[in-house]
């Protein structure tokens, strides 16, 4: 028996006031992906959302439409057809003894860790009764073709890991591709969730207009959408805490429908002056 999964990956803010290195992923069984794309795109048409939907486009006039499409998206998260993974790194934990090469390649090194560990591949084939094929769709990678190609080679080399061999997971080189998010509605919906998490964790909901003590209408609309997304997450995780790694409860790392991973490097030093606690004193 063979199962194929499509994994959509994107990234958000590299550096925020309190958190950075945001990565997001959505994993979908290829058996249902065409139907999900059809349903989500029909909902977009019904809502007159004919262009790409994304967090940066959220405004007061589009708020209800975005709530509608996100509610539908969460219906499929709750029933297990779509699984969401979010990773972010607190800026208060600063890595020690990094080489120039590691600093230069931080984006790719962390993205690789996200791809390797966030989806729960170690629990994906517990009965060892099937072959699992993975197809990676990365939103357009941000660097030179040469460096992007090197990153894809590292993703392909996951095949060599015992974790992948033991769970009979295979990745074909041609199935590691860059895509344009405009053409992939699942990637667009995931971008909205990822953007909302970055928005709240970095206190962007508190931003004021220039030379004013008031927040802009767009900021207020984004906060309302974030709060709505939070309610949806809490339907899955009643005791959800946005800033920490999500507990597994009755799931494992593969079956959990929605999961946060607060990434803290092993060799790092904690600086309280870089935390919200310090800023609130």
Describe the 3D structure.
The protein is of the alpha/beta class. It has a single domain, classed as Ribonuclease H-like superfamily/Ribonuclease H (Nucleotidyltransferase, domain 5, 2-Layer Sandwich). The chain is 38% helix and 22% strand. The strands form 2 sheets. A 6-stranded mixed sheet has the order 6-5-1-2-3-7, with helices on both faces. It is globular and about 60 Å long. It starts with a strand and ends with a helix. The relative contact order is 0.21. The mean pLDDT is 95.
CATH architecture: 2-Layer Sandwich
What are the segments in which pLDDT stays under 50 over at least 5 consecutive residues? none
The description of the largest β-sheet is: 6 strands, mixed
- Annotation field: number of helices: 9
- The SS-based structural class is alpha/beta
CATH superfamily: Ribonuclease H-like superfamily/Ribonuclease H
Principal-axes geometry comes out as globular
Strand order of the largest sheet: 6-5-1-2-3-7
- What would the average pLDDT be, to the nearest integer? 95
Supply the CATH class: Alpha Beta
Our measurement of the CA-to-CA distance between the termini, rounded to an integer number of angstroms, reads 58 Å
Give the domain tally: 1
The CATH topology corresponds to Nucleotidyltransferase, domain 5
**DSSP E strands, number:** 8
| Beta fraction | 15-25%
Q: Strand-and-helix sequence, N→C?
A: EEHHEEHHEHHEHHEEH
Bin the helical content: 25-40%
CA gyration radius, whole angstroms: 19 Å
